């Protein structure tokens, strides 16, 4: 498949725009970590999963709509930044961080950890079964009666990578990465 | 004769209606009306003398609901006597205090009458004020005695501003950090995920978290330790936000540990001045290493044969039969405050073969008091997959064993539901012959595992054959509506149990004291976080359970709100007041008893470390109700999920019927922040602290004897019904008057014309839940209280003021979904009112949109 389809630059973040926004080096099909900013939905943006620690400081930046996103690699941590004219939101990630991959929710103006799960609307029967064969997919749980499936992504694989594969393999697929901490706890 | 003392023979017609006249005293002076009657007077020598007898001369504005001022006569009255009072003083009636009437009645034979004064809280530091009461005149055969006056001081115990600060009304805001952990267990090492979050409004300070591991329960012999700096974490209301949570993996090599040893871990988060709470600044973890230095990951207890005999700890199970026992705490339970299931037990109803899934942290399937009721190979362990971050080496799919030694929540809930009865050990569950299985979703918090645990999955695990899902978990953070959750429960209630629907029993939440971000004394009356926080409580498919203590009052942690369906016993913490006696992890080295030194101890010959007396929470209450539902399903297997809710609502008993309405003054207007028990138009009593009341099992069983299953008509919902607002409505700032919008409801459709027959059916239908969706543009939504009022006048506070859980994110327009059970059985047709009040001056905003949706049926 034709990488170009997934490298569309979306100037307006309309609902119809479900493309991936590629910024820096074009995504390599085989890489497990995504090194560019990605629009997961029109309001949620995934940040590149650069190594948490770099030998020397390095900054990667892009601008999407009113937001400027950047990742600063420092000797002891990585800092994600989302800035607009009146808001500055940051999230730092250390080498041993429990949560290493984040998205920025522009509506709520906060970073949310990415879960290793991708939700797919089951518009065609059995479609999800073949998804198990994709790299980085550890399991696909179909909830046929509920009309969706949840793809479990290997812990070491960036879900954005799998999302991109899914969109490549199944044109028009309704898929999104699940984000945020599950707050349920014993009562 | 005292000129103010006048005597009349009462006209008999007037006498009959005197009490009614007193009740409407505010509308007119009954004495004036009575003057118009030509009535004879008594002779002076028959007269009783009326005077004040003041036991308490002051009342705290916040701490006391009310004070009763006593009027006494020197002898019992021989005929009705009415005393009219004059009020004066620096306190103003209906602003600083309320008094039901200025007319006080002595009925024949009485020599004491009470005047109830209720201070109104206004959140203004105004100093102490006085209420002067004076006997003005008498109606009947009496004369004014001495003292004829009384003075009550209203002591202002509201916020006192610090020196130099202006008088203020405000919400206090702080930061609140807490920590929790989970383990990833590999063959040769353990990774402990240590997570710190700030749920407060303000940023936290940089602090330190320390992990220690010891090989003795006292924690003195430390074998491993690590410490990390936790950076400043931004709060909920920080505009420019840095991290709001922090988490790092800390590694423990098993190489350096000893075999056949139990290890006890502690995580301690240092506090700092100004943090709201410190009780969640610690967490515990621990594990048992076997002879091969592998972490115990499976249940391995052998139960030796079947035993019969009474359950020795049953005598302390006050929640099943309360005869005033202590249940290993210092104080006794209140006699009779239990499930009222004496007859049901006597009749041998035991939940026979009803399938209950404990969706929780785990389940010890080899526990001696559970093992007989465990469904072989039906439990599911989500931690067996190595690629999961919370993998447990050595775990097996069919055994949802919890390797953490500091108590297994699911095992304790499971015992409440279905511990075996008459097996000579421990306790009995509420339904001691159910079939139990465990899904450890809470140790593997993913959407997929939750859906798979709740009937959404037919393989790995197959949860589609479950009758009752016990969900003793939840969130006190605000949950947004979620279509997948709707789908799950719609399918679960329409397709499982051969179309009768599975029953989802859910804990209402322990949010009463959950003031993480905002603090106000009013929280003492209505709680911090309401039941509305969890989205699952705002859809009709679940049965949401609140907790009662051993006196039948709301437990001190239970969330209040219009989403509770029913309440059940759960108790306090088992130190001073009884908590629940239930199963604990097997053995002396594991279990909740490691946390304290009170309650039932492992040394007790009937415990052996397998039981605790300190379990509580709405979790416990939910487990108990799951047991109750199992009893109902044994008795009548054809009950649908709606039938079960209907039966419980119809047979619940009002607990503490004297609970009072609480009103406060906001601006110049009084505003109700908590209603008393109210009877709705369909005859169901409802209270936000209790739902429809306390579960009464025997009454429910009796009700079933004549109840026809599946008789509630088709379950339907309306479209979202809306009303056109001419413009965005300003919500008066800091004013109890608020904004009230009326909305006429006559059809289940929003736009299309309905047929006449459909309209008639809709008018005759019965509400099962009402949802209200509101759109605000407001600078601080935590100021807003929302009350829904039905055409019958039934009121339901669907969102309390100063609700801690409401998200205060920076988005300009916020849409909130609320719901209420209080209108159950009423007709949806008529004019509804939605009242929004901004309880705190300062931040302002508008109400931009309103929508209502009704779930309804056609009840017999």
Write structural notes for this entry.
The complex is a heterodimer of chains A (187) and B (860). With 187 residues, chain A is mainly beta. Helix content of chain A is 6%, strand content 37%. Chain A has one helix and twelve strands. Chain A has one helix at 159-169, and strands at residues 38-39, 44-46, 58-64, 67-73, 77-83, 88-94, 102-105, 110-121, 137-143, 148-153, 175-179, 185-186. In chain A, the strands form two sheets. In chain A, strands 1, 2, 7, 8, 9, 10 and 11 form a seven-stranded antiparallel β-sheet that branches. In chain A, strands 3-4-5-6 form a four-stranded antiparallel β-sheet, with no helix packed on it. In chain A, strand 1 (38-39) and strand 2 (44-46) form a beta hairpin. Chain A starts with 37 loop residues before the first strand and ends with a strand. Mean pLDDT of chain A is 77; it is low at 1-31. Chain B is α+β, with helices and mostly antiparallel strands and 860 residues long. Helix content of chain B is 12%, strand content 30%. Chain B is built from twelve helices and 43 strands. In chain B, the strands form eleven sheets. In chain B, strands 1, 3, 5, 7, 9 and 11 form a six-stranded mixed β-sheet that branches. Chain B has a six-stranded parallel β-sheet with strand order 21-20-22-24-26-27, sandwiched between helices. In chain B, strands 34, 35, 36, 38, 41 and 43 form a six-stranded antiparallel β-sheet that branches. The longest helix of chain B has 19 residues, at 617-635. The model of chain B is unreliable at 1-41 (pLDDT under 50). Chains A and B meet through strand 6, strand 8, strand 9, strand 10 and strand 12 of A and strand 14, strand 17, helix 6, strand 23 and helix 7 of B.
Roughly how many Å is the radius of gyration of chain A?
Answer: 16 Å
Radius of gyration of chain B: 30 Å
Total helices of chain B: the number is 12
Total number of strands of chain A:
12
Question: How does the major sheet of chain B shape up?
Answer: 6 strands, mixed
Q: State the share of residues found in helices of chain A, binned by percent.
A: under 10%
Distance between the termini of chain B: 64 Å
Uncertain runs of chain A are 1-31
Gross morphology of chain A is globular
In helices, the fraction of residues of chain B equals: 10-25%
What is the largest interface, and how many residues per chain?
A-B, 40 and 57 residues
The chain-level mean pLDDT of chain A equals 77
Q: In percent terms, what proportion of residues of chain A is strand?
A: 35-45%
Q: How would you classify the quaternary structure? A: heterodimer
């Amino acid at each position: 498949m034709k990488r170009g389809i997934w490298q569309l630059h979306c100037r307006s973040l309309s609902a119809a725009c479900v493309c991936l926004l590629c910024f820096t080096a074009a995504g390599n099909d085989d890489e497990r970590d995504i090194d560019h900013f990605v629009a997961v939905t029109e309001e949620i943006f995934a940040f590149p999963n650069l190594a948490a620690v770099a030998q020397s400081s390095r900054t990667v930046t892009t601008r999407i709509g009113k937001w400027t996103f950047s990742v600063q690699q420092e000797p002891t941590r990585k800092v994600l930044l989302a800035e607009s004219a009146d808001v500055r939101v940051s999230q730092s990630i250390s080498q041993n961080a429990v949560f290493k991959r984040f998205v920025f929710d522009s509506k709520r103006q906060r970073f949310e950890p990415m879960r290793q799960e991708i939700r797919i609307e089951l518009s065609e029967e059995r479609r999800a079964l073949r998804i198990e064969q994709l790299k980085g997919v550890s399991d696909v749980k179909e909830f046929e009666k509920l009309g969706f499936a949840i793809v479990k992504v290997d812990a070491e694989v960036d879900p954005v990578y799998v999302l991109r594969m899914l969109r490549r393999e199944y044109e028009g697929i309704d898929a999104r990465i699940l984000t945020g901490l599950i707050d349920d706890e014993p009562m | 004769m005292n000129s103010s003392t006048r005597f009349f023979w009462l006209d008999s017609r007037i006498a009959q209606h005197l009490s009614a006249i007193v009740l409407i005293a505010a509308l007119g002076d009954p004495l004036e009306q009575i003057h118009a009657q030509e009535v004879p007077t008594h002779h002076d020598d028959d007269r009783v003398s009326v005077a004040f007898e003041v036991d308490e001369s002051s009342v705290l504005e916040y701490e006391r609901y009310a004070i009763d001022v006593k009027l006494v006569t020197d002898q019992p009255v021989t005929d009705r006597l009415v005393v009219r009072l004059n009020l004066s003083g620096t306190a103003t009636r209906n602003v600083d205090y309320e008094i039901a009437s200025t007319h006080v009645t002595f009925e024949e034979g009485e020599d004491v009458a009470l005047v109830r004064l209720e201070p109104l809280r206004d959140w203004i530091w105004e100093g102490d004020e006085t209420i002067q009461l004076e006997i003005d005149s008498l109606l009947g055969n009496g004369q004014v005695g001495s003292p004829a006056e009384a003075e009550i001081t209203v002591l202002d115990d509201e916020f006192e501003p610090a020196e130099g600060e202006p008088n203020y009304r405000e919400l206090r805001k702080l930061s609140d950090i807490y920590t929790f952990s989970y383990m990833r267990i590999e063959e040769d090492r353990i990774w402990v995920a240590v997570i710190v979050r700030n749920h407060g409004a303000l940023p936290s300070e940089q602090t330190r978290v320390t992990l220690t591991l010891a090989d003795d329960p006292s924690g003195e012999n430390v074998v491993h330790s690590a410490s990390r700096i936790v950076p400043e974490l931004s709060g909920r209301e920080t505009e420019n936000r840095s991290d709001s949570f922090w988490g790092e993996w800390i590694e423990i090599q098993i190489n350096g540990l000893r075999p056949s040893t139990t290890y006890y871990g502690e995580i301690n988060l240092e506090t700092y001045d100004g943090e709201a709470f410190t009780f969640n600044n610690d967490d515990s973890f621990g594990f048992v290493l076997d002879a091969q230095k592998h972490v115990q990951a499976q249940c391995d207890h052998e139960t030796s044969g079947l035993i019969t005999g009474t359950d020795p700890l049953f005598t302390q199970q006050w929640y099943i039969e309360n005869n005033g026992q202590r249940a290993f705490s210092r104080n006794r339970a209140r006699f009779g405050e239990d499930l009222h299931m004496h007859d049901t037990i006597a009749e041998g109803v035991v939940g026979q073969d009803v399938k209950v899934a404990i969706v929780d942290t785990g389940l010890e399937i080899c526990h001696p008091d559970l093992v007989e009721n465990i469904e072989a190979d039906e439990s599911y362990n989500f931690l067996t997959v190595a690629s999961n971050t919370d993998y447990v080496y050595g775990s097996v799919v069919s055994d949802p064993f919890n390797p953490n030694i500091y108590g297994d929540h699911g095992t304790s809930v499971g015992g409440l539901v279905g511990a075996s009865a008459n097996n000579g050990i421990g306790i009995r569950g509420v339904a001691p012959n159910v079939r139990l299985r465990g899904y450890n979703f809470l140790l593997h918090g993913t959407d997929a595992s939750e859906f798979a645990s709740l009937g959404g999955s037919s393989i790995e695990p197959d949860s589609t054959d479950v009758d009752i899902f016990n969900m003793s978990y939840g969130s006190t953070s605000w949950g947004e509506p979620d279509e997948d959750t709707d789908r799950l429960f719609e399918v679960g209630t329409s397709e499982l149990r051969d179309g009768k629907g599975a029953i989802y029993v859910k804990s209402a939440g322990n949010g009463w004291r959950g003031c993480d971000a905002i603090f106000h004394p009013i929280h003492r009356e209505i709680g911090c976080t309401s039941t509305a926080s969890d989205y699952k409580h705002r859809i009709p498919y679940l049965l949401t359970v609140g907790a009662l203590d051993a006196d039948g009052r709301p437990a001190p942690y239970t969330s209040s709100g219009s989403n509770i369906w029913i309440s059940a016993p759960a108790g306090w913490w088992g130190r001073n007041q009884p908590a629940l006696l239930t199963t604990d992890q097997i053995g002396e080295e594991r279990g909740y008893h490691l946390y304290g030194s009170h309650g039932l101890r492992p040394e007790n010959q009937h415990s052996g470390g397998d039981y605790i007396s300190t379990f509580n929470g709405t979790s416990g209450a939910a487990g108990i109700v799951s047991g109750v539902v199992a009893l109902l399903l044994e008795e009548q297997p054809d009950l649908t999920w709606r039938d079960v809710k209907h039966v419980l609502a119809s047979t619940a008993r009002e607990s503490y019927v004297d609970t009072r309405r609480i009103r406060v003054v906001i601006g110049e207007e009084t505003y109700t922040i908590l209603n008393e028990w109210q009877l709705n138009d369909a005859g169901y009593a409802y209270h936000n602290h209790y739902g429809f009341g306390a579960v009464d099992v025997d009454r429910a069983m009796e009700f079933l004897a004549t109840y026809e299953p599946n008789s509630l008509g088709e379950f339907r919902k309306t479209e979202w019904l809306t009303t056109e607002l001419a413009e965005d409505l300003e919500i008066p700032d800091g004013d109890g008057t608020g904004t009230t919008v009326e909305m006429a409801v006559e059809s289940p459709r929003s736009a299309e014309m309905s047929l006449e027959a459909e309209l008639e059916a809709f008018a005759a239908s019965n509400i099962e839940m009402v949802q209200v969706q509101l759109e605000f543009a407001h600078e601080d939504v935590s100021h807003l209280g929302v009350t829904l009022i039905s055409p019958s006048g039934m009121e339901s506070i669907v969102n309390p003021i100063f609700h801690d859980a409401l998200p205060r994110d920076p988005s300009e327009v916020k849409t909130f979904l609320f719901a209420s059970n209080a209108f159950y059985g009423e007709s949806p047709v008529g004019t509804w009112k939605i009242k929004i009040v901004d309880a705190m001056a300062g931040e302002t905003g508008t109400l931009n949109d309103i929508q209502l949706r009704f779930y309804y049926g056609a009840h017999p």
